[in-house]
Amino acid sequence: MSGYFDNAATTVMSQSALQTYVETARSYPANPSSSHSEGRRAAALLSQSRERVASLLKTESEHITFTAGATEANDIILSSLLWRPQSGQVVFSGIEHSSILQWNQLLAHLGWTVTTVAAPSGFIDPQQLAAALTAKTRLVSVMLVNNTVGTIQDIGAIRSAVRRFESESGQPPIHIHSDATQALGKIDVDLAHLGVDSASFSAHKFHGPRGVGILYNTKASTQSLSRGGGQERGLRAGTENLPAIAAMVTALEEAIEALEENRRTVTALNTLLRFRLRELPIITPEEQSSPYILTIAIPSLPSEVGERMLSDRGFSVSAGSACSHNVRQKGAMVHNAMRLDSRLAESSLRISLSPDNTTEECEALAEAILTIHRNHR
Ligand code: PMP
Fold first, then answer.
1. Cα 41 to averaged position of ligand 1 atoms, centre (Å)
2. Residue 178 CB–ligand 1 contact under 6 Å
3. CA distances (Å), 22 to each of 18, 38, 143, 243, 341, in order?
4. Among 260, 276, 224, 249, which residue's Cα sits nearest to residue 72?
5. Among protein residues, the one whose CA lies closest to atom 5 of ligand 1
6. Using one digit for the tens of pLDDT, what is the confidence trace for 92-150?
7. pTM of the model
8. Is 41 exposed, middle or buried (0-12, 13-18, 19+ CB in 10 A)?
């Protein structure tokens, strides 16, 4: 028995998304910017795809930008800061994905103050975040679902705290961004309720293709650093990847339609794993966490060794959060911000689920983990 348990790193593309990809690549050969009839057909499909995404996310199509994934969506929002005449301050949660946290270098180099807010046990305290705001704060970025341990932030409370600071101090509006990559298609993402100015998403986390994603953005003043042919209203220049965009729409439709059913399936698997692994430290809090992510520790083994031993037995899990190359360094930053005991952090393993995982696979994974644990105690 083997099993793929690294769905937070990437998911398998769904059959229908793959079919849409192939059909679109075959039937829409032209560039949507070309003015001949084939080009106009492609432009029409692009426009329909935008309308469909907007309606699935219950927003307006002018707020939707197609990108090359969540990294690029995050980059557009952060790079827009560099157009400002003066540097200011940005506030990040300390557990952001590296596509946000890594901006600290360039921003600091250009004279910005970067403040990261700790997230004990994986949760940001809105009051603590509010205490970090100053007259120079221009942007706050807090992710919705953390990719390392799966905790869900109360973005509504964070937004209220930021807006309260603005009104009490008479500051101009602070841009609130949320990386919702691990949330879309898995938990409810209600943009109106979140009330953020922008959010990022990536298709390959919800069984769509890689290299395509969505930026939701309500701020007309946003300007990207990327220059080119003016596609995506100048925010994301470069010929649009129409087959991938169309396939993403198919995957998103499927994910949203099956959201509740999938959540039930995955919650049952998560509960089973929690029960079977109850003799091990379980890092993901039981409350306010995505059922799709379960991070545990095998205390006697470094993460990489645990990951390798499970891989040798046919199970793909991730040492910490392996959506980046420098896993160790990146994981350490996030684990620090969570105030996680270093011994636990260094032996943590992330199990990330999909509705395609089976009970039998989860039983076998739990058995393999317990055997490894008992052999190395
Ligand atoms: N943000 C989060 C929370 C993620 O989990 C990921 C994927 N590892 C990204 C951003 C980056 O997404 P992509 O690889 O599609 O650019």
1. 31
2. no
3. 6, 17, 33, 7, 47
4. 224
5. 147
6. 999 999 999 999 999 999 999 999 999 999 999 999 999 999 999 999 999 999 999 99
7. 0.96
8. middle
* 144 Cβ below 6 A of ligand 1: no
In the reported structure, the alpha carbon of residue 71 is separated from the centroid of ligand 1 by a whole-number distance in angstroms of 6
Backbone angles phi, psi at 222, to 5 degrees: -65, 135
- Cβ within 8 Å of residue 236, ≥6 positions away: 65, 66, 67, 68, 72, 76, 215, 224, 226
What single-letter amino acid sits at 49?
Answer: S
- Which residue ranges form the domains of the chain, and what is each CATH number? 258-376 (3.90.1150.10)
d(CA 368, CA 309): 9
Measured from the Cα of 204, ligand 1's closest atom is: 15
Active site residue 323: yes
For 275-281, what is the mean pLDDT? Answer: 98
**Is the C-beta atom of 323 inside 6 A of ligand 1?**
yes
Reply yes or no on whether the pLDDT at 1 is more than 90. Answer: no
CA distances for 205 relative to 123, 127, 220, 254, 340, angstroms: 22, 31, 27, 13, 26
